[in-house]
Design brief:
Low-confidence stretches: 399-407, 409-434
Helix content: 40-55%
Order of helices and strands: HHEHHEHEHEHEHHHHHHHHHHHH
Shape: elongated
Largest sheet: 5 strands, parallel
Strand content: 5-15%
Number of strands: 5
Radius of gyration: 34 Å
Length: about 425
C-alpha cells in the first residue's frame, strides 16, 4: 500500500478526471482544441476544489508533444514529467506566493521569465495563493504579465481573487471554481473506496461529504483517516460518528420523538446521554438543527429523498418521513428557529449543557411564548390531539348500540322537546322587551 495521502494518489491527470467543475474544464478544453490559449489565467475558488490540479493539467496539455491538446498523450517526456508521480519539469515552475510574494521574488521571476524553455513548448509559471503577493510584487510583475514573450504562460490560483490587483486581473482569463455538489462527491468517494477494496457502511459517506463541506481534498483527507483506522469489517457508521464527532442517529431520533410527544423527561434524559457520552454539546445542537432541517423539507416535499434534497440512506429517510408526519409544519419551523437561535447563543457559553437544556425547554413549551410561531405550534398540537381522539372514538364501538334489524313499534314513544315556560310577572315583561 502506497504511503501517499489518498488525495495525492488519486489526483486527476486530465480534465476528464476533474469532478464537479465542468463549467471550467469544458471551456478550457475547447480553447485548447481551437488553439486559442491565453497568456495568463486566474483560477479562483474555495480550497481543495481543483484549482492547482487544473493548473498542472493545463500545463500538461500545453507542453504535450501532441499539443496544445485537451487530452495529453501521457507518453511523451513532458507528460511523464508532469504525471501524478512524475519528477516534474524544469519548464513548469510552481511558486507558493505565501512565502515568495514579495517584490524581490517578483523581480527575480521577471528576470528569469525571459529565458526560453529548456525542452518544452512553453515556460509556465503556476503561482499558488496568488492573493498573498504584495501590491509591490504585483506591480513588479505587471509588465511581463501584460506583454509576455511568446513562450511564457502564467496561471494564478487563489481563494481570494478580490485581493489580486485589478491591473493583473484584467490581463487574465478568470475561471471561478465551485464547491463540488454532495451527490457528485459521494459517488466519487464510493468509487475511491471500491478501488481501495475497503467496505463502507451505509451512512458513512454522507458524514464524510458533510465533513468535507464540498472540498474534494478535505473529503479525501477525512476518508483517508477513516480507511486508515478501519478494521477487517471496513469503515462502520459507529466508527465514523465517533471519529468525526457527529451525533449518533439514535440520539437524534430519541430527542425528536421526545419533542413530538411533549415528553420533557425523555428529552432531558437524551441530554444526559449526550453529556455522559462525551459528545460536544454544540455539535449535538448543530446536528439536531440539521435533522430538523431535513424534517422541514420532508414535511413540505414528501419525496425529497428521491429528488436528492436530503443526503441520507434510504432507511434513514424513511424513518425521518415518519417523524415529519407527526409534527405540524409550524411546529417544525418553530423548533428549527429555536434551535438555531440557541446554537448562536452557545458561542462562548460557559455552561453548554445548560444551554442545551434551555433549548429543549423552549421547544417543549410553546405556551410560554405569545408570538405567532408559538400560536401556530399550539394549534398544530391541538389538531394532532383532536385527530388522535377522533381516531380512537371511531375505533371503539358505541356503548349502547341497538340490535341489528330492530324496528321501533307503535308503542315506542319519542318524547318531544317542550319549550320552557316563561315566568309570569313584571320580570317576564321586562325580559320580553329586551
Amino acid at each position: 500500500m502506497s504511503s501517499l495521502a489518498l488525495y495525492r494518489r488519486y489526483r486527476p491527470e486530465s480534465f476528464a478526471e476533474v469532478i464537479g467543475q465542468e463549467h471550467v474544464t469544458d471551456p478550457l478544453q475547447q480553447a485548447l482544441r481551437n488553439n486559442r490559449v491565453n497568456h495568463a489565467y486566474l483560477f479562483s475558488g474555495p480550497r481543495g476544489c481543483g484549482k492547482t490540479t487544473s493548473a498542472r493539467i493545463l500545463a500538461r496539455c500545453l507542453n504535450c508533444e501532441q499539443g496544445p491538446t485537451p487530452t495529453p498523450c501521457g507518453e511523451c517526456q513532458s507528460c511523464r514529467d508532469l504525471a501524478r508521480n512524475g519528477p516534474g519539469s524544469i519548464d513548469v515552475i510552481e511558486i507558493d506566493a505565501a512565502s515568495h510574494g514579495g517584490v524581490d521574488d517578483a523581480r527575480d521571476l521577471r528576470e528569469k521569465a525571459f529565458f526560453g524553455p529548456a525542452s518544452s513548448r512553453y515556460k509556465i509559471y503556476i503561482i499558488d495563493e496568488a492573493h498573498m503577493v504584495t501590491p509591490a510584487g504585483f506591480n513588479a510583475l505587471l509588465k511581463v504579465v501584460e506583454e509576455p514573450p511568446e513562450h511564457l504562460k502564467f496561471i494564478f490560483a487563489t481563494t481570494e481573487p478580490e485581493k489580486v490587483i485589478g491591473t493583473i486581473r484584467s490581463r487574465t482569463h478568470h475561471y471561478p471554481f465551485r464547491l463540488v455538489p454532495p451527490g457528485t462527491l459521494r459517488s466519487y468517494l464510493a468509487d475511491v473506496c471500491g478501488r481501495e477494496n475497503s467496505p463502507v457502511e451505509d451512512g458513512v459517506l454522507p458524514l464524510v461529504v458533510r465533513a468535507g463541506a464540498g472540498s474534494v481534498r478535505d473529503s479525501m483527507s477525512v476518508m483517508d483517516q477513516l480507511l486508515a483506522g478501519a478494521g477487517d469489517d471496513g469503515v462502520t457508521y459507529a466508527m465514523a460518528t465517533s471519529l468525526l464527532g457527529y451525533t449518533d442517529g439514535s440520539l437524534l431520533d430519541s430527542i425528536i420523538d421526545a419533542f413530538a410527544a411533549g415528553d420533557g423527561a425523555a428529552a432531558f434524559e437524551v441530554v444526559e446521554r449526550v453529556i455522559e457520552g462525551g459528545n460536544d454539546p454544540r455539535r449535538f445542537v448543530a446536528d439536531l438543527l440539521e435533522r430538523l432541517r431535513d424534517l422541514v423539507i420532508l414535511a413540505a416535499v414528501p419525496d425529497a429523498g428521491e429528488k436528492g434534497l436530503i443526503d441520507a440512506p434510504a432507511d434513514v429517510v424513511e424513518r425521518m418521513q415518519a417523524q415529519a408526519s407527526v409534527f405540524g409544519a409550524a411546529e417544525l419551523s418553530r423548533a428549527a428557529d429555536l434551535v438555531n437561535d440557541g446554537l448562536t447563543e452557545m458561542r462562548g457559553a460557559t455552561s453548554p449543557r445548560l444551554q442545551v437544556e434551555l433549548i429543549c425547554a423552549r421547544v417543549l413549551l410553546p405556551a410560554a411564548y405569545d408570538d405567532e410561531r408559538s400560536l401556530q405550534a399550539r394549534l398544530d398540537r391541538l389538531e394532532r390531539g383532536a385527530s388522535a381522539a377522533a381516531a380512537a372514538s371511531f375505533a371503539a364501538p358505541p356503548a349502547s348500540a341497538a340490535p341489528m334489524g330492530y324496528v321501533p313499534g307503535p308503542e315506542a314513544h319519542v318524547p318531544q322537546a317542550h319549550a320552557p315556560v316563561a315566568p309570569a310577572g313584571p320580570d317576564a315583561a321586562r325580559a320580553a322587551v329586551r
